[in-house]
Design goal:
The protein has 2 helices and 11 strands. With 275 residues, the chain is an alpha+beta fold.
Length: 275
Amino acid sequence: MRGKGVLTFPRLRLVSMLSAALLGVGIGTAHADEPPAAKRYQLNGDARSPDLSGLWSGSYLTAPGLRAQTPIPERKYTRWAPFPLPLTPDYQKKVDARAAAAKTGRVIGDAGVRCLPSGMPWKIVVNPGLPIEVIQTPGQVSFWGGLRPVVIYTDGRPHPADLTPTYDGHSIGWWVGDTLHVDTVGLIASTAIDAAYNPHSAALHLVWTLQRVAPDRLHLNLTVYDPEALKEPLSTTVVYELLTERRMDLIDDASCFENNRNLPDENNASGFKRF
C-alpha cells in the first residue's frame, strides 16, 4: 500500500506486533537498555538461527556491457532489474544533468567528493569497495564497511516515530526460519543509490533479506522502493563470499582526506571541506 510519498507494509506491521507479543513489550515501547547477555531475540523464537558473522566480499553492481573497476578483480558482477532504471521524469532530468556534467569532468551526486558518507545502499549493500565485516550479537546484526557500521536491530523495536534522516538510515530485522528480513527507512536524500550516482528522494525505502546459503556464501536480496524517483521498485541480488585469508583481516580505514583530488560539485565548489 502507498501512503503520501511513503510505502507502508501491513505485513511488516503484523510482524512487529507478533514480535512485540513474543518479547512481552508494547508497540512503540522504547528500548534504551542493552539486551540481556546471551539472550537472542528471534521472531520465531528459534535460538538456533544461523550465524551470519564473518568477513565477506560482495559482488559488484554494474550496468550491462560495463565492467566496473574494483579493488578485487575476481569478484562477480550483478545488475539492477529492471534496467534501464524506471525513473520518473524529474529524476531522469537529474540523471541526464549528472551525465552531462561528467563529460566536462565535474562529478555530481557523489557525496564522497565532499568527504561525506556515501550512504545506504551504496558501498554497503551494493558496490562494496572493501570487504564487509558482519558481526552478530544478541539484539543486532552489524555491517562494518569502513569507518562506521550499519546496525540492524533484531530485538523487536519498531522504527522511531520521530526518525531524523541520516546517511545509513534506521534498520530493523526479524528472522523467518534461516532468513533475516530487514527494513531500512529514514535515509537522507542527498546521496546516490549506486556507483553510477543514480539519485533518490527522501522517500527511499529498502527491503532486504540475508541468508547464509552455504558455509562460505551469503545471499543478500534487495528491493528498492522510492515512489518519487522510481516508477516501479528496483531489485538486485548481492552474492557475498567468505574471506579466510589472514591478510584480509585488516580492513582499510582510509579517510577521503588522504587522497582528495579537490573535485568540484554541481556548484563548482571545491570538494575539499575546510574546518
